[in-house]
């Protein structure tokens, strides 16, 4: 059966695609025999029409017909947001149109109203008590931190890979939707009833408090229809914030309910065999975890090899398989150039690079795989200074994440602090995790009283700082702004060090620095005194 990936591969030869829709019949769960392909540029659509109309694709002759652009996108599947003024209508349309963009503003977003309701029930207080009085912002931030921690624990226990949400997302899932800003105590059944009309569902997860959820569809067409129909529509008087989950959100694969029931009916109850299967799954899970830990390592210096005389048909997978005999591989790159005959495609240039995690593996590969045969080509290996991991977006993000994850002391740098927040409120938020040595918010100007939007918090011990970092770095908001935490350098508060660093980049000693005639002169006092005595 044809898939969206097959169509994408066939049509993207003529230009970048904006959208591919392959409708699925709900009864037969098979394609309906037609699809909609949208290009980013009109000329690419015309080019594909000229080249693909009447050609054979997977045993069928393609018949291409120019499609009409969408005139008006509806707001089906819920109460519409376009009621009221024209400004409200225009804003709703803009939000809905941009809903499919692959940006992530906050994966674990929680509405203030839902947080207040959850805290009021947990502490047997009224919602007014939570939101009124001094320290309301700090109370909400602490409540949000507690809810997020329970949400993360629930998702991890249900096979969700949370690291996928903390990295720069290169690929998005086309079947898993992250549903945010749900009303307090939304149940899984309510979420199923909302999404089920658009297609067969797989897993539907709602953590405690029912504020955020994950919905998995069995087919891409159903997920796409649900996303387009429900994004920014009202559900129990609150707008739904939908986002495509990162690729690989779920750890492992689970069968849908229909297949599971059929299998149980055919095979009957499992006894001892089931225990064996559980052990096998646990062992497989351990292997996957070890592989993930291996990938999170940072490659050692001088671990890249230059590969010459590659077969033009060799792929990254075949190279990785060939060189993995000598040790775990960090990254593989094949040098490519644009294909002038086929727009959108690239041709191999016959050479590439492979980077190991350790120097020991690199030395072994250089010795054992020199002049070895790869895809019927004898490859030549040389050492290279090229750092592949630092040049890829995933490598840059992994390195940045590792810098944040590595604890350098007991001092935390806090960014994105709202300007209306006071030092006492920041201290109140952080002291819940241990004894604080100091809290410092640098001011814009001497005597102005306004801080610069970031600060430093230092604890008495490293364990207290680690506990605060773990709890607050995920999704904690203060006055509506998400706090961004990272480990501070130990010399961040050293004024002399900051001055030296500034002079290094902007002073006269810096590369390209201008020598001002009115600048301060560097005079050798001792030499001047000797000349005066003479």
UniProtKB/TrEMBL annotation:
Region spans: Disordered: 255-304, 382-407
Pfam family, one: RRM_1
Alphabetical list of CDD domains matching this protein: RRM4_RBM19_RRM3_MRD1 (cd12317), RRM5_RBM19_like (cd12318), RRM6_RBM19 (cd12571)
Main localization of the protein described in the UniProt heading: nucleus
Compositionally biased intervals (Acidic residues): 291-301
GO cellular component, one term: nucleus
Keywords per UniProt: Nucleus, Repeat, RNA-binding
Subcellular locations according to the entry: Nucleus
UniProt entry tagged with the keyword Repeat: yes
InterPro entries: Nucleotide-bd_a/b_plait_sf (IPR012677), RBD_domain_sf (IPR035979), RBM19_RRM5 (IPR034423), RBM19_RRM6 (IPR034421), RRM_dom (IPR000504)
Stretches assigned to the RRM domain: 1-69, 175-247, 303-386, 410-490
Bias kind Basic and acidic residues: ranges: 274-290
One function term, GO molecular function aspect: RNA binding
Family, per entry: Belongs to the RRM MRD1 family.
Protein name, entry field: Probable RNA-binding protein 19
Organism from which the protein derives: Cacopsylla melanoneura
